[in-house]
Amino acid sequence: MATKFVWPKPDRFTLMLIGTVLLATFLPARGGFVSVVDVIGRASIILLFFLHGANLSTEAVKDALGQWKLQLLILASTFLLFPLIGLGLGPLRGHAIDANLYTGLLFLCCLPSTVQSSIALTSIARGNVPAAICAASASNLAGIVLTPLLTGLLLANQSAISFDAVWSIVSTILLPFAAGQLLHKRIGGWLKARKPMFSVVDRGSVLIMVYAAFGKAVVNGIWQTVSAVDLLILVLFCLGLLAIVVVAVRGAARVAKLSQPDEAALVFCGSVKSLITGVPMASVLFPAAAVGAIVLPLMMYHQIQLIACAFLARRYERRAIATEQPGV
């Protein structure tokens, strides 16, 4: 019997994210408190990427080489298809969609896949979970380098990436990540045994940076420049982006003659984007005053991908059960 679909309830992190935006809207950091929040935010970014480096097993990425066709399709969707779609929306910038929100969409298109959500969705869909684990790890490892590089290339005309931003990437993201990788064998097992602590740092750092980014954006008048109509248009753009990618990767799976479990891994690893990685990177790559508008599309897409992909995962699950029990 197929599992009855249950409408996904907002998780605790989503509610905390909404609460943080509301807090930043009504009580943004001002005066000397701004520098305190900035220091805490920068320290949390360094700690976050150090822990990501220490927690990520390079063996898991190496194992992905055994399924090179699937892994290449996932990487192509994440770092090629998404940016191409983003560039294709360029003529609509400043007309159908606010210019700053479009910049945020382009940045969204450059981000790696999320880890927890893509693996969880693949599992619900009865997909190839080991391949999803490898793909998510490889995507995030590649994203450390490719996301800043792609962002710089796509936004070159807007001078989004400066020398100072490059140094910030190296000192705040790459060096802590590399240090974590060097210490993986020593502390990786210790971290895996303390997942709740890692999760607190993971999500806590994002909440701090969202508060800092939106606080500065509110002080600079973001809610006077981004209207309810702009937000509705942004939702439509995010829905359209997700729909195009899902249709494209499902078509690619059929052309490549992937099995249903591999197709599920491709769909859910190749269509989702990482909020956990995106918010810290935006804080490093973009001017402080612009970060709030930059991360808004990412936050919107994050919620949409969870709800839409939960529906899709249940469809894959029902199809898998029907295949296993053809008489049911």
Topology:
Layout (H helix, E strand, L loop, with lengths): L11 H15 L5 H24 L2 H6 L4 H21 L10 H11 L6 H9 L4 H26 L8 H20 L1 H9 L2 H25 L2 H4 L2 H28 L4 H11 L4 H11 L2 H37 L4
Helix pairs in contact: 1-10, 2-8, 2-9, 2-10, 4-5, 4-7, 4-12, 4-13, 5-15, 6-7, 6-13, 6-15, 7-13, 10-14, 10-15, 12-13, 12-15, 14-15
CATH architecture: Up-down Bundle
Low-confidence stretches: none
* Structure classification: mainly alpha
Share in β-strands: under 5%
Mean pLDDT: 83
CATH class category label: Mainly Alpha
Helical stretch tally: 15
Major sheet description: none
The ordered H/E elements are: HHHHHHHHHHHHHHH
How many distinct domains?
1
Radius of gyration: 20 Å
Q: Give the terminus-to-terminus CA distance.
A: 7 Å
CATH topology: Na+/H+ antiporter like fold
Share in helix: over 70%
* Secondary structure: number of strands: 0
What would you call the shape?
Answer: globular
For the structure shown, list the relevant keywords:
328 residues, mainly alpha, 15 helices, 0% strand, globular
Q: How would you sum up this structure, described in words?
A:
The chain is mostly helical and 328 residues long. 78% of the residues lie in helices and 0% in strands. Helix 4 (68-88) runs antiparallel to helix 12 and helix 6 runs antiparallel to helix 13 (260-270).
Describe the structure in brief.
Helices cover 78% and strands 0% of the residues. By secondary structure, it is an all-alpha fold.
